[in-house]
Queue: 2 jobs
Job 1
Amino acid sequence: MTDFPAVSREWHLVARPQGWPTAADFALREVPVTAPGPGRILVRNLHMSVDPYMRGRMNDVKSYIPPFALDRPMDGGAVGEVVASAAEGFEVGDHVLHGLGWREYADVDAQHATKVDADLAPLSAYLGVLGMPGLTAYAGLFETASFKEGDSVFVSGAAGAVGSLVGQFAKIKGASRVIGSAGSDDKVKQLTGKYGFDAAFNYKNGPVAEQLSEAAPEGIDVYFDNVGGDHLEAAIGALKLHGRATLCGAIAQYNDTAPAPGPRNLVAVIGKRLRLQGILVSDHAGLQQQFVQDVAGWLRSGELKADETVVHGIENGTEAFLGMLRGENTGKMIVSFTR
């Protein structure tokens, strides 16, 4: 007797977006559900992640990760419950993290599933603070940017899943000053209130370079870039001698239909001997154990606050994704299939 339905719903990309994605670029379709074959597990997804990098995968261009195929299910981080198993080491009822989101039921190669403990943290946390965004923030700050105690740090997109953690990690580890930018006055208040940033500004209220100069009159040592564009240009201007920048995202440019101009002050990189380095979280798997140990401890002690913006129902998956691109989330944007 099976404990899963005959059909499942999943989101397909049906057209390559030109500029901002629209609802017409996606379709929610029904597909049959079958028992897993040898070495595989069937997972009922409980929560799925929507992330900025997914926008790039909607373009048919060569990149570090293959593009989404048209008329096929999209994928991404998800956590769920095993409902059928043909793989050693996995039992019905286990909770697992895997990469086949955007669908209600996932037929997963057990080698690509990781058991997670619902007693250690809420399951959705494994998509955020204890998952890919958390490790991105941790590795990007401590390894890529070579953060050290006493550094002054600027974070763009600071109210998002990664940025909100970067700023808090820096404060916990002894930053002299942490500044964040966000897209609303309410988010600015949350940065300086709940998250403990020393200063923050709404980038819509005036030129980024001017607001950053006011918030960090003595300059910055580290910049964590989630936005690109005018934020990167402003940070280059504010970075001190031998400053470091982690280039994590460029959400301001993801939906551009023409190449965006580069920072006009790149020559300053030479004179200041700056280091600008990109990050892909997949390069930092060796930090996983230390990351979980540190972050779980900070969560338990209350030093670290991790927020989620939750949208319920797979039918609202693409709207959650578009909302994330519009900056409607505070912390990690999650699509939950539970009520």
Note: The chain has two domains: 7-127+307-336, 132-282.
Job 2
Amino acid sequence: MHKNRYTAFVFVAPILIFFFVFLLYPLLYTFHISFYEWNGIDPIKKFIGFDNYKSMFYDPLFYQSLRNFLVLCVLVITIQMLLGFLLAYIMRRNSKLFTVFKTIIFIPVILTAIVVSNIFNNILAFNDGLINTILRNIGLDQLAMSWTANPNIALFSVIAVVIWMGTGFSMSVYVSAMTSLSLEVIEASRIDGANRVQTITRVVWPMLRDTHFSLTIISVISALKIFDIVYLLTRGGPMHSTEMLSTYMFTRTFDSYEQGFGSAIGSFLIVLAVVITIIQMRLSRNIQN
């Protein structure tokens, strides 16, 4: 009996070590540093209690970055899910042409942020960008603008890029989910007189409720972690119009050398992620019940 216990512990030990060293310890260390004034270089840290949190909650930039995150989160999740669902429904049949289309739509999902940012920096450039060049060539010069340098539209330009990157994933999830749908129910709705729009909105969409919920969870987690594409496209500018909590934390930590303040932002992000996870788990239980 004891030998079996030791054997089981040997198998479990690697994942436990990984959890404590690479997950639990960094989280606890982040909370610990958030109570200090520290530039991240000097060996001496000054304990200041909750001052970093007070400064964070009194900083207007914190609320702007939180607002930008919420706008991005809502728009990206909504549009990605709708586009992914419609594309999956249109290309639900097995055909070589649809397979090619689905492959092309999925390609942005596997591209790295540096590749995507390089592509869209060229597309969205003011002087010789693809969009502005097309607008000027067709006589719509007044519509040409600085897509990532205009504070009024920069956030929506970033959101459009994020949607482009993730729609293929949503489509692939919906394609997989639709393969398990009962075709008899769909055919019955058509026999009962439902048109195509009614079939999609009142039959197919409700039947994919679990898929909607799973995609929402994945998308929220991805939105919380978003950093690279925003930083590479705009670095949170112009005038902080695309500032996210992650870029806000990065700037204060590494550009301003405020390790304690950055850790306070990181701690807030951790708490926010935990709260969102708890809410999603409770909603999942209610849906299943």
Note: The chain has one domain: 59-288.
